[in-house]
Amino acid sequence: MKMIKDKEFLRNIAHHINLFNTIGGGVSETYVNIKKHRKGAAIQVWAAGVDSKSFKIVLHNNQLTILSMLHSSGDAEVAIPLFNRTYMLPPQVDLTRIEAIHKHGQLQIKLPYHDAATYPKEIEIQQL
Description:
Elements: H1 7-23, E1 30-36, E2 40-47, E3 55-60, E4 63-71, E5 79-88, E6 99-103, E7 106-112, H2 115-118
Family: Belongs to the small heat shock protein (HSP20) family.
Protein name: Hsp20 family protein
Organism: Pontibacter qinzhouensis
């Protein structure tokens, strides 16, 4: 059996199969995993055939919304919503240090905690 070695061709085929499956009433599988660590948390999202340009992340009032749209290669105006999830972030997440990285088909959103949430601080008692 001869393998297809043109990776760009394979990506395009996977993209179109995913597009036709979704248009035909199928579902594009998206897998989400949330990992909690001592210094923060991470949300990992895998979506078949979805590149980094198709994802959008919006932070508003402690709500983090992750969505992706599958755009048609023929018409930029045609898009199919694939994934939309909203998370309420806990108060210990430092909203100013949130990062998103897309690597090897996986979107990872890092949610670092405030330093005060990870390291205890002793408060001095004042005498009046």
